[in-house]
Design a protein that fits this description.
alpha/beta; about 30% helix
């Protein structure tokens, strides 16, 4: 993380935020472009491409900023798009145009989308299967916070960990977008008790305000010992970990008999090795959740997770927390905000 922040902190001149006239037909839209790995993004004007029969053109209003977007721009993500590319895994906007084979959405519909990397632009063209309609009463800004964080939280808690009412869930990086989504879903949908683990008192306080039952500041000592003081020697039933490294190992050791830990990411920068004896001694399970793989391998499950998030939001049962909103031309500032650990909740780019 520190190295990533240093890279994004260098050469922070607005010269990088250039606009270059596109070639061709006169109508252009602005997009964030990664032309070289480990370098700040440029804002360029590009030509729209034609919509294929199965595709939809969306007027993007908001795009989520995820740690995965930063990793992919450093060549450190599981997927490596061909340069140059536009990052942005999730977005919310309005349908501008539909292909001849599309009937699920129409011009003017408000939608959220999740389709690889192309959302940090004023327009994007995506497969119609990558879009979900936004129901009445759910603002575009709030909807943009749902796809990655809440799909991850729902699949991690419900599908992977099989979390039950009354169980205790420990979540690391609890004040981040995924952490707060886990707190929201675990508390308000699954009726579980959440221990929020975060790196500062301010972040712990935010997690408590968002529904956590208790909190631990892991910058002040052992996570395992702090959890033991809260729940006793029995441990926690479920861990959702987005940090990795030594924190993952402490969380693993905090599990109760037949507990389950779900690996969601490695925001700390280190991938831990799992001591198999710890799995054996308490019959615990360690498992992973790579959300994008579900889109490819089990799309119905992937779609149900996001559809559930939209439904919960419409019903007022969950409330996404928007921590910061940047303009498109401030995309490098948004990336730095995340890499310097200043962000809480979802960070968005506003395209309007």
């Amino acid at each position: 993380m520190a190295a990533a922040a240093a890279v994004w902190g260098r050469c922070w001149s607005r010269a990088w935020l250039c606009r270059r006239a596109g070639q061709g037909c006169g109508r252009h839209y602005r997009a964030a472009l990664c032309a070289e790995l480990k370098q700040p993004l440029a804002i360029e004007e590009v030509d729209p491409r034609p919509v294929r029969p199965h595709e939809v053109r969306v007027d993007v209003h908001f795009c989520g900023v995820n740690f995965a977007d930063i990793l992919v721009c450093h060549g450190q993500y599981q997927e490596r798009p061909q340069l140059p590319f536009t990052p942005g895994m999730e977005f919310a906007g309005t349908v501008l145009e539909t292909g001849t084979d599309v009937s699920a959405v129409k011009e003017g519909d408000q939608v959220i989308g999740m389709s690889g990397f192309n959302g940090m632009a004023e327009e994007c063209v995506v497969d119609h299967k990558a879009l979900w309609q936004i129901p009445e009463g759910v603002p575009l800004r709030e909807a943009a916070a749902l796809p990655v964080s809440y799909s991850t939280a729902i699949l991690a808690l419900e599908h992977r960990a099989r979390t039950q009412p009354g169980e205790t869930v420990l979540v690391t990086a609890a004040a981040g977008a995924t952490g707060l989504a886990v707190i929201d879903v675990a508390t308000n949908i699954l009726q579980a008790k959440v221990i929020a683990a975060a790196g500062s008192d301010e972040k712990c306080q935010l997690a408590m305000q968002r529904g956590a039952h208790s909190s631990v500041n892991y910058s002040q000592g052992s996570l395992k010992e702090a959890v033991r003081k809260l729940v006793g020697s029995g441990g926690v039933d479920v861990v959702i970990d987005t940090v990795g490294g030594d924190l993952f190992l402490e969380a693993l050791r905090s599990l109760a008999w037949e507990g389950r830990i779900v690996v969601v990411g490695f925001a700390g920068g280190t991938i831990a090795s799992v001591p198999a004896n710890l799995l054996l001694l308490k019959n615990v399970s360690a498992m992973g959740l790579y959300l994008g793989r579900y889109r490819d391998q089990n799309f119905p499950l992937f779609s149900r997770g996001l559809s559930s998030a939209i439904q919960y939001c419409q019903q007022g049962r969950i409330q996404p927390h928007i921590g910061a909103v940047f303009k498109l031309e401030e995309v490098n500032d948004a990336f730095l905000h995340v890499t310097q650990r200043k962000s809480t909740g979802k960070v968005l780019l506003s395209l309007k």
